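Late entry, evening session. Most of the bench is empty. Finally got around to the prediction I had been postponing all week. Sequence below, unchanged from the version circulated by S.P.
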Amino acid sequence: MNKKSLDRKAAQKFIIDNRDNGKSDQDIYNELSQQYFDKKSVTLLITATVTTENKNKYIIYNNVLLGLLGLVILLRILLVFSLTIQTGQLWTLLLVFIVPLFAAYFAYEIARYNAPIYRFCGIMTIVGFMQTIGKSEGGTDILINLVFAGAIAGLSFYLDSKMFPDYSPKNLKKDGNGEYILS
């Protein structure tokens, strides 16, 4: 059998279908590693694919996170419009497209259950909050930002740990033969 480069869509469909049929992740890895060259990518894809059980169990939390990200997008757009009205300069309307890009990207990837984005979203939310603290004079805007940032970061890290418990790109387990071990 000739091995080929990893086809992520086909492999992910194979993973989901076989999990639904009761196969273990190790059995799925053994089959996929026979078809594809890059065993590490196969392992990461398996651990980054949410199980149907976890997807159903945490769907409400995921939807709350998506709702919060949508609200952040809306608030950032309103902030840009407010800035445009205050300054009277139309070029600031270009910021409408730029400012909410990160939140929109996070929302899109979280809606697709992309494992690596959950941690990245949490980290970037904390960084953004720290930046806001440095620029702010205090008051209710810090409190509002704290609530949003805390909820988004907390949900991001929580969902990452619960829906993708084995996803750890730096700590993949191997056996004595160099094959990856999955639970």
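Two things to note before I forget:
The two ends are 26 Å apart (CA to CA).
The chain has a mean pLDDT of 87.
Will write this up properly tomorrow.
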